[in-house]
Amino acid sequence: MANDLEDLMNRISLGEDDSDEDEIVIEEKWVDEDNTIGESCLIGKLMLKKPYNLDAMKTALMKAWLISTELNIREIGHRLFIFNFQSEMKKGKVILRQPWFFNKALLILKEFDGSEELESLDISHCPFWVQIYGFPIRFISEKIGVVVGEKIGEVLAVDTDDQKRAWGKWMKVRINVHVYTPLEKECWISLPDGRKIWLTFKFEKLPDFCFVCGYLSHLENDCDKAVAMQMAYLSIKRLYDVSLRAEGLKASGALVVQKNSLESPSLSVYRDETVAETQPAEIHSKKDIPSFNAGQ
Predict the structure, then answer these.
(1) pTM score, two decimals?
(2) Alpha-carbon distance values, 2 to 6, 29, 48, 280 (Å)
(3) How far is CA 33 from CA 29, 36, 37, 102, in A?
């Protein structure tokens, strides 16, 4: 027993930093070798200010996610949750079908393997399909969708056919939207012939948001700008309205999904409910985009 204790103490390195505080160094061999602990887990943040019932949220999400077996949910912080699924496949379907809501408030979901500190987690983005209106048909292409989509946020996918074109009243782009910045409503673009075109954006499955500042993270009743306006002017100026919300239409055709940066050659193709990895295909980098600039 004494030898075991002495051996354990020898494996713990005690040192001092600049502030003379003791430091315990954890060796890699002490860490659980089972690296699958997070493979079926997601971390989520609920953008809801008012009180809620955890059991009611669990019941609602299991119904929405078509889960008939047990779903383990643990609250690990303020409106912060760990979701433990029975299978990695079910977890993957939930991630792909974002966004999700509870009580009309956004639930941001993110992959989580348990190795990151909770305080350092960046849970500030959520993917949305965005409909872009105003394009002449000639300019509805994947390349141009990427350029315009970057006005809104990180482009994840462009809904196009096999020739990388889209046909219809709008172009549809999958975008990772920052919930703590105002939603983009519109922008000017300059065409190669010198014409300027006004584009407008509509977000599919858009939850309730603040009509004063355009944030997804709170509603008007919780908006500091709205309170300041009422105190100063006894009225509120709303820059947003429900026209930013589009009906959630199901994407069709092949969706070219960009996993990393614009320069990454790694692609996936979504068709219906199946995710299939493809061979590296051509990806258009910024330098390949034709003369075409999104206006401010």
Answers:
(1) 0.72
(2) 6, 22, 54, 58
(3) 8, 9, 10, 36
